[in-house]
């Protein structure tokens, strides 16, 4: 049975199931074939990076459809669907069942960690304990080193809430310093609104951050119009001197968006490893058996352009201005090579 006929049979079958579910009290449909077909069709019609990632949906369908067997149990079905979702190579492509949750771990596991929290705390944040503050979700301090005074702040998750007064306190402390380091390593993302609130505290003027588009049709390249997104000055207390944002592959989703916002500012440099990406806004729904799924349905395009004048699609990660890894030899001696490189930039501008 070819895919077109099979899809027709599936749609017809789902219409019948929909009627029966209405009369039967909306009971979940546990047929493995129906669940697979629904998830595949959703990916084929709505996933926003099929072309960008070179995903051949015909091959994808053939490979995983053949693994669906009548009467297979929930765990076996989950593993097949998990494998298909992981073919998207997307940390926002997740499948959730009552007994487990899928994630694309190679996004982080195939890269160096480039972060040691204890090293940062002991040797930098608490180098002078009297200068170490915890204000809301922010840890921050002031370091006197290499002839310069540097503010250092960390924020571990954009899901952590804060007040404008929290930001005011931190930024007031940093007033007049030679530069500020914002450590966003291993921040896995969270609430997008918090991205704009923090980025605005470092903006010198309104600048274009990126262009956002949403999947709008069944075709692989059916997108709605580009929406221009800005980084705008915000708050009474801001810092517009030299700023460094530290990144690693664990800087994902909302943190990549924050990197886009900060990269738009001329006085900011990204130092470390390429971010984990995750700029496609995730959305999803429910499958016939009650499981839920989500994947990326949008794209973010940088205003920076390549040699052909096309904006960069940094879904797989935003590159740093200055590439540096955590040196294990120096780490054993009590030095974070990424923080030290950031301090060097603040001191010299290079």
Summarize the structure.
The chain has 350 residues and is an alpha/beta fold. It contains 11 helices and 15 strands.
Compile the SSE list and pairings.
Layout: H1 3-24, H2 32-46, H3 57-65, H4 74-86, E1 94-97, E2 100-101, H5 106-109, H6 117-125, E3 133-135, E4 138-145, E5 148-155, H7 164-173, E6 179-183, H8 192-199, E7 207-214, E8 227-231, E9 242-247, H9 254-263, E10 268-272, E11 282-286, E12 292-296, E13 298-305, E14 311-313, E15 322-323, H10 328-332, H11 337-348
How big a fraction of the residues is strand? 15-25%
Q: Helical region count?
A: 11
- The share of residues in helices is 25-40%
Uncertain residue segments: 1-27
Overall structural domain count? 2
Content-based structural category = alpha/beta
Q: How many whole angstroms does the radius of gyration measure?
A: 23 Å
Query: Looking at the chains present, what oligomeric state does this protein adopt?
Result: single chain
Order of helices and strands: HHHHEEHHEEEHEHEEEHEEEEEEHH
CATH superfamily of the largest domain: 2-enoyl-CoA Hydratase, Chain A, domain 1
Average pLDDT figure: 92
Task: Please count the beta strands (DSSP E, at least 2 residues each).
Answer: 15
CATH class category of the largest domain: Alpha Beta
Global outline: elongated
């Amino acid at each position: 049975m070819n895919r077109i006929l099979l899809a027709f049979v599936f749609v017809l079958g789902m219409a019948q199931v929909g009627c029966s579910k209405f009369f039967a009290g909306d009971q979940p449909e546990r047929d493995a074939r129906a669940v697979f077909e629904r998830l595949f069709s959703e990916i084929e019609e709505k996933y926003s990076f099929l072309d960008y990632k070179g995903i051949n949906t015909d091959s994808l369908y053939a490979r995983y459809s053949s693994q669906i067997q009548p009467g297979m149990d929930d765990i076996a079905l989950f593993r097949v669907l998990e494998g298909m979702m992981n073919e998207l190579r997307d940390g926002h492509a997740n499948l959730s069942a009552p007994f487990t949750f899928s994630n694309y771990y190679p996004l982080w596991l195939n890269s160096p960690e480039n972060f040691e929290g204890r090293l940062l705390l002991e040797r930098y944040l608490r180098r002078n304990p009297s200068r170490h503050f915890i204000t809301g979700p922010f840890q921050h301090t002031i370091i006197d080193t290499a002839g310069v005074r540097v503010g250092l702040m960390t924020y571990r998750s954009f899901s952590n809430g804060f007040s404008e007064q929290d930001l005011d306190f931190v930024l007031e402390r940093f007033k007049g310093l030679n530069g500020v380091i914002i450590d966003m390593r291993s921040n896995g993302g969270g609430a997008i609104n918090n991205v704009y609130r923090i980025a605005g505290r470092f903006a010198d003027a309104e600048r274009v951050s990126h262009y956002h588009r949403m999947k709008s049709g069944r075709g692989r390249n059916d997108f709605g119009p580009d929406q221009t997104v800005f980084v705008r000055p915000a708050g009474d207390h801001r810092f517009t001197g030299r700023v460094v944002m530290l990144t690693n592959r664990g800087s994902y989703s909302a943190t990549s968006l924050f990197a886009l916002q900060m990269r738009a500012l001329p006085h900011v440099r990204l130092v470390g490893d390429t971010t984990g990406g995750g700029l496609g806004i995730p959305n999803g729904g429910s499958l016939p058996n009650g499981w839920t799924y989500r994947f990326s349905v949008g794209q973010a395009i940088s205003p920076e352009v390549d040699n052909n004048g096309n904006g960069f699609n940094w879904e797989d990660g935003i590159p740093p201005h200055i590439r540096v890894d955590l040196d294990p030899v120096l780490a054993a001696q009590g030095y974070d090579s990424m923080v030290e490189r950031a301090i060097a930039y603040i001191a010299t501008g290079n």
